[in-house]
Amino acid sequence: MAIREIRTVGDPVLRTPCEPVTAIDARARSLVEDLLETVDQEGRAGLAANQIGVSLRAFSWNIDDEVGYVLNPTIVELSDDYQDGDEGCLSVPGLWYPTKRAWYARVVGTDLDGHEVSVEGTELMARCLQHEVDHLDGMLYLDRLERSVRKKAMRAMREQL
Q: What is catalysed by this protein (predicted)?
């Protein structure tokens, strides 16, 4: 197990849709261990595999003292109610912007035993599930910002470089 380095904006792995995990082997088990250890740090809510440079559909979360993971997640349900709070990202360090997300979300995927798992939640957990699946699809939360806010965010990112 290892705490892995977080890839940041500009790294092409963040913009590449991830491939499904097709085999539950030593590689998949090692990936899950690294995801769990890396997300289990202060201030971290979620972590997608591509954020640590692995282009496979897997993510971990650390919400309300619960740390977990899911392989091959698919969003299967979103509420019609929305939340519009500030969102940040480990791959976009130091920047937080209002991002509209569904208030409730549910994903279905598998665990390391090949069993189907369902992960659901409201508010922060729902935001995390949507955010991490976006990562696996090659999207950043910046892509969901309103145009004027996105322009401001891109300017702030350039200033950080």
A: N-terminal N-formyl-L-methionyl-[peptide] + H2O = N-terminal L-methionyl-[peptide] + formate
Instruction: Give per-residue burial for 64-88: e unless 16+ CB within 10 Å, then b.
Output: eeeebbbbbbeeeebeeeebeeebb
CATH superfamily of 12-160: Peptide deformylase (3.90.45.10)
89 is in an annotated binding site: yes
- Nearest Cα to 107, choosing from 83, 131, 80? 131
132 is catalytic: yes
Q: What is the pTM of this model?
A: 0.95
131 annotated among ligand-binding-site residues: yes
What does the domain layout of the chain look like in residue ranges? 12-160
Burial of 31 (0-12, 13-18, 19+ CB in 10 A): buried
Give, for all 161 residues of the chain, the pLDDT tens digit: 688 999 999 999 999 999 999 999 999 999 999 999 999 988 899 999 999 999 999 999 999 989 999 999 999 999 999 999 999 999 999 999 999 999 999 999 999 999 999 999 999 999 999 999 999 999 999 999 999 999 999 999 888 76
